[in-house]
Amino acid sequence: MKNRMIKLMKIKSTLCLVSLLISSQVFAKNADKFPEFSWDTMPLYMHVWKQTSYTAAEIEFLAKFPLITLEKAQGQKEGTVQQGTLKAARAIKELNPKSKILYYKNIVIDWKSGVSKQLESISGGYLQAPDGSYPVVNPNSKAKFFDISKEEVRRWWIKDAKSMLTDPSIDGVFIDANIKVLIGSYFGKGKKLGDEKADALIDGYHKLLTGINNEFRDDNIILANILRARFENAGLEYMEYFDGSYFEAFEHNVGGVSKPDYVVKGIEAGQKAAQDGKILAFTAGLGKALAKDSSGIGLDEARGKLASLEHVQKRLDYLMAIFLTMAEKYSYFFPTDGYGVTTDRKGNQRNRTWMHTFPAFNNRLGAPKGPAKRNGYVFTREFEYCSVYLNVETEEATLKWK
Predict the structure, then answer these.
(1) How far is it, in rounded angstroms, from Cα 186 to Cα 121?
(2) Which of 5, 35, 293, 340 could form a disulfide with 66 if both were Cys (CB 3.0 to 4.6 A apart)?
(3) Domain region containing 221
(4) Are strands 100-106 and 396-401 parallel, antiparallel or unpaired?
């Protein structure tokens, strides 16, 4: 135990040195790589996948967003995810060249994204338990994990990302599952790999992110699923690696912390990141929270599907108020019923928010008159055309549009 603690302290010391290096070198970046931004109305984000190609109407809808992540299953029924992503991205760019489009790449999970054959050729490329078995993401998935503690695997990761980022239609990379690596117990205990391997993965993570920054950061957006109140410093301790953060499981409190305190910690982390000039892609589900998520330990977003949009206004107002309490320039909002564009057997769209624009998104917003004010669990903030009241203890909010 003592040796493990010493090793973890060394990893944290290395992270501090890396952060200083990134701050001094990488942050001499090209501001043009950031998305367009306006306070005129609610600034919006899109995070989506469709296993087939988008229709012309769908491309027209997507082209309205300044920032888009094309998720891990994009176009896979018509080829590889890489091919599907590029086909969609190029079509969007034809309508809106200013839209910034991100390629999804998981930091540790092999979602069979079209480059797995290269990974399979790497000896020991997949994580393997001491009993010889290969851990998988969950019982319903056969997706295995790749071993980023190995230098050859890290080189493979960067090579694949580079093959996409060299295309003019791709403006950056969305990096997922950071939390699974950084919460060492997920692999150490949950996947039965042991503490030593979990620590090696954390060390490999920092080496990989350093390589990603050195290779891509100057000209590409590096966005991550990273801000989370479960971290000691809510994920801010890792933000030097990234241009911004997406949000997931924002309200799922862990570690004995009350839900209101957990949400407050997340809001304050979002405020700090936004005030530091980071991109916020605040994504939150409109459906009812589920008791258990796919990770089994609350690492992923877990919400039920909506039957309709008839009774979502209270939830939508609450999420908009959370977002507006944090938002600064380069903050974007996405309330969702899921990321997939899928239909049922009758051809009806399962995703109730797809191709839907909530009326409030057309309201004039205007620039904030200052940062949000906090009184216990209550936040208030004034915008030019909107007054925001947020109570995270009662989960109530009021938006007064002028």
Answers:
(1) 26
(2) 35
(3) 2-363
(4) unpaired
SS3 content of the chain, % helix, strand, coil (to 5): 35, 20, 45
Alpha-carbon distance of 252 to 268, in angstroms, equals 16
DSSP string, 146-177: B-TTSHHHHHHHHHHHHHHHTSTT--EEEEE-
Q: How far apart are CA 171 and CA 391, in angstroms?
A: 37
The number of folded domains in the chain is: 1
CA distance 273 to 275: 6
Main-chain phi, psi angles of 199, to 5 degrees: -65, -35
The answer as to whether 381 is a domain residue is no
- In this structure, what token pair is assigned to residue 373? 């004010």
Asked if residue 220 is part of any domain, the answer here is yes
- The number of angstroms, rounded, from the C-alpha of 181 to the middle of its chain's C-alpha atoms is 15
Q: Token pair 């092999």 is at which residue?
A: 110
The answer to whether residue 399 sits within a structural domain is no
Does 208 fall in a domain? yes
Q: Write out the chain's pLDDT in tens, 402 residues.
A: 545 555 555 555 555 544 444 443 433 335 589 999 999 999 999 999 999 999 999 999 999 999 999 999 999 998 999 999 999 999 999 999 999 999 999 999 999 877 778 898 999 999 999 999 999 998 888 899 999 999 999 999 999 999 999 999 999 999 999 999 999 999 999 999 999 999 999 999 999 999 999 999 999 999 999 999 999 999 999 999 999 999 998 999 998 999 999 999 999 999 999 999 999 999 999 999 887 666 666 677 778 899 999 999 999 999 999 999 999 999 999 999 999 999 999 989 999 999 999 999 999 999 999 999 999 999 999 999 999 999 999 999 999 999
Q: Residue 276 sits in a domain of what CATH number?
A: 3.20.20.70
